[in-house]
Design goal:
8 helices, mainly alpha, two-stranded antiparallel sheet, 2 strands
Length: 209
């Protein structure tokens, strides 16, 4: 695979994460403001937040979220191809962890949309809240199956760059989803993970040659 092809794949992944961040926003905002996890505790608060929430936006979030995650897989394919010239084993680890995170992350994103859609369709009652929360808890394995491989990817890739195994300067290790997410975390942006990944792939697009 040529360097140009790899860079194009990284750019597609960056665009995918930008799109996925928009999909997160469609789920996180309603006419009442921004969703907070504390809203889940009381149905009155939760029902008020989802009052007027656009079902169309929830559907768009799920559908475009799948497309966005598909686009982001291009980055892991391109990155693993580039890394394999220095370490075949590390290249396969990057590919496996990144793809696993994306596959499970796609399921998690869709399930988040499903929970909101059914809660609204069931008239935002206390029974609806209990049912969708129970469903969310029982399917939360998709969340952990996404974040754990993503953490493995981030740690492995950080060590690979910081130890000088690739022809990149050590400071390039900042273009990694974990340190970028930690930098963004205090600001509590919606879709901080997607912002971090978009910056990571964009930075690597300019650095890899």
């Amino acid at each position: 695979m040529s360097v140009l092809t790899i860079r194009i794949l990284l750019l597609i992944a960056c665009a995918g994460h930008v799109l996925c961040r928009q999909c997160d926003s469609w789920l996180a905002y309603s006419p009442k403001g921004r969703f907070q996890f504390s809203d889940l505790k009381e149905n009155d608060t939760m029902a008020e937040f989802f009052d007027g929430m656009s079902l169309k936006n929830i559907i768009f979030s799920m559908l475009f979220g799948v497309l966005a995650m598909l686009m982001s897989t291009c980055g892991y394919i391109g990155l693993s191809e580039w890394i394999r010239q220095f370490s075949p084993g590390m290249g396969w680890l990057i590919l496996f962890s990144g793809m696993t995170a994306n596959i499970c992350g796609t399921a998690h994103h869709v399930l988040c949309g499903v929970v909101e859609w059914f809660y609204i369709q069931m008239n935002r009652t206390e029974k609806a809240r209990e049912m969708v929360l129970d469903f969310f808890r029982k399917t939360s394995i998709t969340m952990y199956a996404c974040y754990i491989p993503l953490m493995i990817f981030g740690i492995a890739f950080f060590i690979f760059i910081i130890t000088g195994k690739a022809d990149l300067p050590q400071w390039a290790s900042i273009f990694n989803c974990i340190p970028l997410f930690l930098i963004l975390m205090p600001f509590k942006f919606v879709g901080s993970g997607n912002i971090a990944n978009a910056v990571m792939f964009l930075g690597l697009f300019f650095l890899i040659s």
